[in-house]
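Q: What structure does this chain adopt?
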Amino acid sequence: MKALKSACVALITLFFFSSLSAQTVDEIVTKHIAAIGGAANWKKINTLKMEANINVQGNDIPVVIYQVNNKATKSEIIFQGTNNYNIITTEGGWKFFPIMGQAAPEAMTEDEVKAGQNQLDIQGELLDYKTKGHKVELLGKDTLDGNEAFKLKVTRKNGSEATYFIDAKSFYMVRAMAKVKANGQEIEQTSLMSNFQKLPEGIVLPFTLEGVGPAPIVISKVEVNPKIDDAVFKVTQ
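A:
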């Protein structure tokens, strides 16, 4: 009887803390969505076009990023008279970098495509994450640059995982980590987000991104819901 009581207490305690954890995760996610402009504003976002610069060895290199929600994304770099790009769609991925010696566009590997397709949801994986089939867990808190941040583990519907760090004061996402495969090896890729700015449409975006290129990407202009022709995502030479 004593053993049965102990087991019941353990189960009740486990259920209580599981419920508490779930509520805490939802509270953090809700505050994060509110901080970046609110669900209603983000659900209006179907396309984005961003102009940015990367400064490499004193050279300002212009970058244009096109995004169509859950369909396609393209990063385009015009440098020394060459048109260089990455394209990811629901159909696959392609890359063409003449500045790196490529003579023709190349199909991305299966792992590269999978990693890129995880970024097609421009409204954010945390927005309506349960409806999207994702799972979010709270792993506790970390200290980043002297500031506390909630550490959230996201297990996507397709089984891939990412770890997001949500600043405990601003509730902005300031760091994202994911394991990706490159050259046959699994590496951990870390992205840092800062310089958050609110757009007239009410959404908030980081205007400085680090870890996604050879140098920080600094966004200078954002167009919300522009018309983006399908031809933008066609593989060309």
